Amino acid sequence: MDKSLLEQFLDDQEQTHIQNFFENERLREAVKKVLLAPLYLQGTMKKGKKANPTANWLYTAIGNTNENLGAVIRAKTEALAFIEEGFKLLSCFKKTEQTVDKKINQAR
């Protein structure tokens, strides 16, 4: 997907907001962390808390067949890939540096 496809459904104001969001690296990384937290942090151990292995999303699929378990894992992997691809698409709105050509006075 390229910028021209995104421009088909994003108005000018939305594109400006996306451009500003992309340029703010700290905000971009913070939002990415929040979006990925359910995949990365489910069932992980925390300091001062007892281990709870049933908190991991993978254990909700234990009663499933191997095929269903594989489908769940594939779906989570694809979700992660789609989120990463979406963040790569944001770079389409990176500001480009405008260079101004200075005219040289040939008479000097």
Description:
It is a single chain. The protein is mostly helical and 108 residues long. The chain has one domain. Helix content is 55%, strand content 0%. The chain is built from four helices and no strands. Helix 3 packs antiparallel against helix 4. The longest helix is centred in the C-terminal third of the chain and has 25 residues. The radius of gyration is 23 Å and the shape is elongated. The mean pLDDT is 84.
Name the helix and strand elements from N-terminus to C-terminus, one letter apiece: HHHH
* General shape: elongated
Mean pLDDT: 84
Helix content: 40-55%
Tell me about the largest β-sheet: none
Determine the strand fraction and express it as a percent band. Answer: under 5%
From the alpha carbons, calculate the radius of gyration and give it in angstroms. Answer: 23 Å
Number of domains: 1
Q: Structural class given helices, strands, pairing?
A: mainly alpha
What's the tally of helices? 4
List the uncertain runs.
Answer: none
Termini Cα gap: 50 Å
Strand count: 0
